[in-house]
Amino acid sequence: MLTESSNQLTRSPVQKAVFAQTKKLRSRYNRLWLKEHILRTIGMSVESTQSKRLALFQELGGRAIAQGGKRIHVPVVDDLTPPEFHARFVATDTPVVFKGRASGWKSSKWTAAYLAKVASKETVRLLAVAPGEAKGKPGEGRNVDYQQIAKSMKEGGDLYARFSGLLHQRPELIEDLDLDWFRSMSGHGNETWGFFMGGKGTATGLHSSIAPNLFYQIRGKKRWYIYPASTAPFFKPEVKGSPYFYSYVDVNDPKTWPIAEAAPGWYADLGPGDVLFVPSFAWHQVHNKTASIAVGYRWMSLKQGWRASWIQTLLAATCSNPPLWKAKDHKDLPSLLDSIDY
Ligand SMILES: O=C(O)CCC(=O)C(=O)O
Ligand SMILES: [Fe+2]
To answer: What distance in angstroms lies between residue 127's CA and the mean position of ligand 1's atoms?
Structure first.
């Protein structure tokens, strides 16, 4: 069943115009992006390619900003059958919010204190990947336990457990979720889980990765900004040979970065029980408006990745920072993210 708001446009007329008018420039940008990646990988000078790429970023930004577009809310539905979900959202790389879909699950009773108890033997590596944090400060290089995170949440501190493997370490927690629903929606049975728990004001900077995601908000409120994979040139992602794509553009600060509104994108405000679909390689930045607990269910689909962004699929497959064999076998995402040379 669809709610009324699902009738809203998934792209505004201005956003469609920005896409159409920048198509050629974005293709040119992508060719330079690929060239710079290859030059960097084989140890050659990237200087002239990089300066051409950055000049294109400026030109693209100018064109988009001149259109005066604004981000629109992600489409909202109550529920969808898996075929509906695939036809309307997965196949078109469009995000969607399943409003309150998970409200009745046992996991809605989870609290930070309860999770800290369940996870009393586990620790999580702190990362510095929020807007402006990453540069020159790849990670805080320390592990904390979940009691410390729970305390920080209470006291308004900035500790943030993110991309944590807690549900792999404590798989009994998965029994409190509706695993069959996740699997029927993804069409895959080989998932990875990311766990997020942090206080008001914690945030994750703009990034993009191949795995599509059904992101389940358990407690608190989160603001998401999402952009289709094809908007990458508007954000000049760093070219560092990493399989984790990230940008230093802060899309929560449109005064400093007017491209945040002008690049065709969406925002969504999630509350307890909401589930958000984040398509393969979609760019996203996330802010905890209150203390927050959430879980991301991800699957791997080369087909979805290639369709969303052949260039990022190629770049990820030929990454060197760290090399793919290391990235692929990593069970602990926070440590992997912390090992990247940003
Ligand atoms: O909630 C966050 O801070 C980040 C979530 C995210 O990036 C993801 O699930 O892919
Ligand atoms: Fe993410």
So the answer is: 12
Closest by CA position to 241, among listed 342, 320, 129: 320
Residue whose CA is closest, atom 1 of ligand 1?
286
Q: 234 Cβ partners below 8 Å, 6+ apart?
A: 57, 60, 61, 64, 227, 249, 259, 262, 263
Q: Cα of 307 to ligand 1 centre, how many Å?
A: 22
Q: How far apart are CA 276 and CA 18, in angstroms?
A: 25
Counting atoms of ligand 1 from 1, which one is nearest the CA of 296?
Answer: 9
What residues does each domain of the chain span?
4-339
Q: Is the CB of 213 under 6 A from ligand 1?
A: yes
Task: Tell me if 162 CB under 6 Å of ligand 1.
Answer: yes
Is residue 325 over pLDDT 50?
yes
DSSP line for 177-243: S-HHHHHHHHS-S--EEEEEEE-TT-EEEEEE-SS-EEEEEEES-EEEEEE-GGGGGGG----SS-S
Centroid of ligand 1 to alpha carbon of 259 (angstroms): 21
287 lines ligand 1 (CB under 6 A): no
* CA-based nearest residue to 38, from 318, 238, 321, 327: 318
Tell me which CATH homologous superfamily contains domain 4-339.
Cupin (2.60.120.650)
96-98 vs 123-127, strand pairing mode: unpaired
Structure tokens at 76: 């909202």
- In the reported structure, the alpha carbon of residue 45 is separated from the centroid of ligand 2 by a whole-number distance in angstroms of 31
At 23 the three-state DSSP class reads: helix
Q: Record the pTM.
A: 0.94
What's the chain's average pLDDT? Answer: 92
256 burial via Cβ count (<10 Å: 0-12, 13-18, 19+): exposed
Q: CA 57 → CA 20, 63, 93, 138, 206, distances in Å?
A: 16, 10, 23, 25, 16
Q: 189 or 266: whose pLDDT is higher?
A: 266
pLDDT score at 282? 98
Amino acid occupying residue 53? R
